Amino acid sequence: MASAGVTASPAPSANRGPRLQKGVRALAIASAQLLLIAAALVAVGWVLGKLWPILLPVILGLLFATVLWPPTRLLRRLRFPPALAALVVLVAFLAVIGGLFSWIVPQVADQADELADAATAGLQDVQEWVTGPPLNLGEDQIGQAVDQVINTVQGNAQNIAGYALTGVSAVGSGLLNLVLALVLAFFFIKDGPRWMPWLAAQTGPKVAPHVAALSYKTWTTLSEFIRQQALVGFIDAFFIGLGLWILGVPLVLPLAVLTFFGAFIPIIGAFVAGAFAVLIALVSNGWQTALIVLVIVLVVQQLEGNVLQPIIQGRGLNLHAAVVILAVTAGGSLYGILGTFLGVPVAALIAVIYRYVRDELDGRTPEVADDGTRVQVTGDETGATVVRERVATPAAGRGDAAADAPAEDDPEPRPPS
Fold first, then answer.
1. What is the pLDDT, as a whole number, of residue 388?
2. Omega of the bond prior to 10 within 30 degrees of 0, cis?
3. Range of 377's domain?
4. Nearest 5°: phi and psi at 379?
5. DSSP 8-state assignment for residue 307
6. 11 located within any domain
7. What is the pLDDT, as a whole number, of residue 383?
8. What is the block-wise mean pLDDT of the chain (417 residues), using blocks of 10 residues?
9. Of 169, 191, 213, which one is at a domain's C-terminal end?
């Protein structure tokens, strides 16, 4: 008989041991699977890192192709041969870029002396401010601070020289990748429409719809990214450039161009371009003008982020702002300036592939669009055509059952990625 005040513990269940063993086994299997997945990701990352010198010009070439394909398609509809259409568009593109830089560089050179004089005067104003109240720093203290900076620079002269050589090497490598990307872009817009049908044919009838649909999604994602960022960049550059012109800030055109290209590095690019505009205004026109420029930049960027982006990117990349920042940061830390530019489109492509695989695993047949059609790509020597084959009614567009109906051709030819 149990003594008073002592609670008898219940007898252990006969199933406790088997359940514990089952739980431990499930935990071990899950841990092993996670380790295998982590190892696979590390291996994929290592392979991509080794292949990056090849992948970089390919990705850049695809981005160039998304810009160059619409005028190329127009010329092909006007009976231009594919090679001639691609060559004309590529030469025109290079001429526009070259003309833009030939217009900007003389302006920067002409106003460089003026900016240098303004910067010297600004430094003198800063020196007068720090020597007066409330800081009241002496000339000897300022001299010591300057000497420390000079000594630091001299002590790191070797490292600075190494950084300069690394920068020169990086510039040379970047130019080589740029040339290779332009060459690939030429072949993409010349022969690209014939590649996707060939690839789909090599994968077989079961895999071909997935190859066509995934490639089509990839191409449209890249195209939408370029178009959207170009429109956003143009609007930002126009209004910020207009404000700088009204305020009499020098280098209006270079700053507007910097703002335009900064839009292709979401969030961070706009911040850097705005900081340059404020800095030039501060050096050349004083802090009052710089403050007004800062307000203009903030207002334009707020209108862009809260009004334009939701409208323009309604069918866009579907990436959270935090993912965008992480993609830009990761790309910049791994591959520098090019990485910051490519971070967001690469992240968007990864998201496209992930969503496609996820929908396929969930049985939602991602190769079937929301309107109940499946994307196929066919083509010949004259180009490619997106064929939408109806496989289900829109209401049951995510099911398995549907009878095939006659194919409907999209009249607009599109190049696959």
1. 53
2. no
3. 373-413
4. -175, 170
5. I
6. no
7. 41
8. 58 72 88 91 85 85 89 91 93 92 81 71 68 66 70 67 68 84 91 73 74 80 82 89 90 88 79 86 84 91 74 63 81 78 83 83 63 51 48 44 36 42
9. 191
Return d(Cα 397, Cα 391) in angstroms, integer: 8
Q: Which two tokens stand for residue 114?
A: 């003026």
Angle between helices 82-131 and 16-77 (to 10 degrees): 110
36 falls within a domain: no
Q: Is the pTM of this model over 0.70?
A: no
384 within some domain = yes
Distances (CA, A) of 300 to 177, 270, 297, 313, 366: 34, 10, 5, 17, 38
Number of domains in the chain: 3
Q: How far apart are CA 36 and CA 269, in angstroms?
A: 37
Q: Which residues of 236-266 are buried (b: 16+ CB within 10 A; e: fewer)?
A: bbebbbebbeebebbbbbbbbbbbbebbbbb
Q: In what order do the strands lie in the sheet with 383-390?
A: 373-380, 383-390, 407-413
